[in-house]
Amino acid sequence: MAYTRKNQRDLTSAERKKFVAAVLELKRSGTYDDFVRTHIDYYVADGDNRLRVAHMTPSFLPWHRKFLLEFERALRRIDPTVTVPYWDWTKDNTPAASLWGEDFMGGNGRRSDLQVMTGPFAYAGGRWTVKHGMTEGRFLTRDFGRPQDPIALPTKAQLDDVMRETVYDVEPWNSTSRSGFRNTLEGWAPGRGSERFRIHNRVHRWVGGLMLGGASVNDPVFWLHHSFVDLLWSRWQQRNPRAGYLPTRPPQLGESQYRRIAARDEKMGPWGVTPAQMLDHSAIYRYA
Fold it and tell me: For the chain, which domains are there?
């Protein structure tokens, strides 16, 4: 029977506590840091001349769906009642949102060094030490809204524009694709400064700190963010039932993306599943 992922704002106090406890247990056991390491290892930019399956590629959405599902399964081995909630950043879009409460994600980083000082994932609490980061820092950092270079969370109107896309992805199947649901949602765009970052990318930039780059999994809000991204893909699939995953065939020798992206029936590391196998989640979970 399929279980339900809820909006984080609708969680009861007990549900918030159970989710946090399961995440902390994964951290204590070392399993959480395995997920961090996986994301770092598979964060390959489209400027690199090698296979990329996690970012700047058509498999961005199925890869993260599988990544999220594996994390959720790890949580549910600890507590079978736990699921990964989602953060609708078009509504809960201020530092005052309940998401950032001391009983849940904790708040912003302090100005001096961006260190998060509140909540269960604060370094001072002794249960959340960063082991795999892009710097030597050992504590969780955040920089809401990036005051030195201000950026706002995506709006509902901006998201509505994305949801009006009718094709899953388009050539050249990377961060420069000018249309298509995948790249529009992932949020790579032309322009300068913050204009280069839209939707999914903009949320990472708004949270700031460790949510920037390949080590973003170090911030537990990563999972709530990607749960909402997955929800958006799920809704888009329902609206566009005939718009399947693209490309359906692997790029051929001589094409720019030859051996650099995963076509519909090609395996994605590290699990060996294909994008086609990740298109339907209805037998496993649903969204409230």
Answer: 3-106+152-199+216-287 (1.10.1280.10)
247 is written with which tokens? Answer: 């490309």
pLDDT (tens digit per residue) in 153-208: 999 999 999 999 999 999 999 999 999 999 999 999 988 888 889 999 999 999 99
SS3 of the chain: the string is: CCEEECEHHHCCHHHHHHHHHHHHHHHHHCHHHHHHHHHHHHCCCCCCCCCCCCCCCCCHHHHHHHHHHHHHHHHHHHCCCCCCCECCCCCCCCCCCHHHCCCCCCCCECCCCCEECCCCCCHHHCCCCCCCCCCCCCCCECCCCCCCCCCCCCCHHHHHHHHCCCCCCCCCCCCCCCCCHHHHHHCECCCCHHHHECHHHHHHHHHCHHHCCCCHHHCCHHHHHHHHHHHHHHHHHHHCCCCCCCCCCCCCCCCCCCCCCCCCCCCECCCCECHHHHCCCCCCEEEC
Residue type, 89: W
Q: Which of 268, 250, 280, 248 is nearest to 59 (CA)?
A: 268
Name residue 5's beta-bridge partners. 287
- Least Cα distance to 62 among 177, 179, 185, 171 occurs for 185
Q: Which residues contact 82 (CB under 8 A, 6 or more apart)?
A: 18, 19, 22, 72, 75, 76
Joined tokens for residue 200: 């999914």
- What is the distance between the alpha carbons of residues 236 and 183, in angstroms, rounded to a whole number? 14
Amino acid letter for position 275: P
- Residues of the chain short of pLDDT 50, as ranges, are none
Residue 152, token pair as written in the block: 């706002």
Output the pTM of the full model.
0.98
